[in-house]
Amino acid sequence: MRRPVFRLPAWLPVDGYILTLLGTVGLAALVPARGAAATVADGASTGAVALLFFLYGARLSTREAMDGLRHWRLHLTTLACTFVVFPALGVAARFLVPFVLPPALYTGLLFLCLVPSTVQSSIAFTSIARGNVAAAICAGSFSSIVGIVVTPLLAGLVLHGDGGGFSAHSLVSIVCQLLLPFVAGQVLRRWVGTFLTRHKKVLGYVDRGSILLVVYAAFSVGMVQGIWHQVSPLRLLCLLGVEAVLLAAMLTVTSYGSKKLGFPRGDRIAITFAGSKKSLAAGLPMASVLFGAQAGLAVLPLMLFHQMQLMVCAVLAKRYAARAAAEPPPAVGPDGSGPDRGGSAVGVDPVQRESEHQRAGR
User: Fold this and answer.
1) Percentages helix, strand, coil for the chain, rounded to the nearest 5?
2) What confidence tier does 254 reach under pLDDT thresholds 50, 70, 90?
3) Which stretches does UniProt call biased (Gly residues) (predicted)?
4) DSSP-assigned letter for residue 164
5) d(C-alpha 249, C-alpha 255), whole Å
């Protein structure tokens, strides 16, 4: 007899994992790690970060990543949104300090603008919206890879004097905790890739558990040092308002910008979701490396933005899907070709395209 699995009601617009993260924050507030326990938690957090990036490297197929390079124009657009437009908006928000946001929360807001895009949720929303799923997979993967190098570099440029940025210690930490495990995962993929695929569900719990450990360690340090007394409920409401404006601006830029650049509908959907979202899974461990003891407040804006983007993009994806369903089917010519309505031709498997042409010729 199978044990019942607890699931949140479908009508509840909150990600269950976000609730777990908030519960972890509450646990750190009530029972923070101190003394020897804090040393153990810090060491375990460091190991968890290295494990996460090893798994990222081991799971990513190098061949798939290289095959996706043929979509270079789409990927450049997505990367520009993630690592140019987002950081520019974050830097422009500096005038909000200290009247709207305190310096600590602004640092977290600026950091979330530097984080790479998501992979899983971008793919899921693109699929729901009937967009180019293959492009979303490649765009999210490339963003994650580029972000391992670009995010710390950007942090060194724009977070200087804001509680983050580069030092000799942080550079060594980035190499040892992020780059080396990722490269090791790529090198060992041929031997461990099959095992990881076979135990994908179990390793998903390892991923999420590692992130929870990072959150607990970071927020415990914040509680011990008393940094949470710096933030009032009014400041948190201001932060939510600023992030809502930021998300709306990026959705507008990605949606209308990709249309102006002449991308077909399927590619526009992929760019909209991949270019307007930020990865909590990649941002949390990076923050623990870059900010150290100040990571507690630094990751709070990212946690809130992550939940907001899930809720907004879920509604947006359903609207895209409804709009696609209302459109007439594409006209198919004698050779089996027709105008692109739901996705881009570059996202179609060449073998599938060849078999479709063969069937059309019969």
Assistant:
1) 80, 0, 20
2) very high
3) 335-345
4) B
5) 10
In angstroms, the Cα distances linking 243 to 23, 197, 308 are 22, 36, 8
Q: Is residue 342 part of a domain?
A: no
User: Could you give the number of structural domains in the chain?
Assistant: 1
Average confidence score pLDDT of the chain: 77
Q: Give the position of tokens 């928000």.
A: 93
Contacts of 9 (CB under 8 A, 6+ apart): none
CA-based nearest residue to 244, from 311, 156, 343, 318: 311
Asked whether the beta carbons of 292 and 217 are under 8 A apart, the reply is no
From residue 72, how far is each of 117, 249, 342 by CA, in Å? 17, 24, 20
Instruction: With CA atoms as reference, report the closest residue to 87 among 153, 179, 163.
Output: 153
141-176 tens-digit pLDDT: 788 778 888 888 888 888 765 555 445 555 566 667
Contacts of 19 (CB under 8 A, 6+ apart): 8
Instruction: Please state, in angstroms and rounded to a whole number, the distance separating the CA atoms of residues 168 and 259.
Output: 43
β-bridge partners, 164: 160
Distances (CA, A) of 252 to 131, 248, 257: 17, 6, 8
pLDDT at residue 213, as a whole number: 82
Output the pLDDT for position 361: 40
How far apart CA 68 and CA 27 sit, in angstroms, is 42
pLDDT of residue 139: 83
80 domain-assigned: yes
Token look-up 């040092």 returns 225
Q: Is 232 exposed, middle or buried (0-12, 13-18, 19+ CB in 10 A)?
A: exposed
pLDDT (mean) for 187-200: 83
Instruction: Confirm whether 336 is domain-assigned.
Output: no
Determine, yes or no, domain membership for 333: no
Find all residues with CB under 8 Å of 121, minimum gap 6, and list them. 273, 277, 309, 310, 313
What is the rounded CA–CA span in Å between residue 282 and residue 279? Answer: 5
The two tokens of residue 125 are: 């929303």
Q: What is the largest CA-CA distance in the chain?
A: 75
Supply the CATH number for residue 96's domain.
1.20.1530.20
CA distance 136 to 273: 8
pLDDT at 248: 96
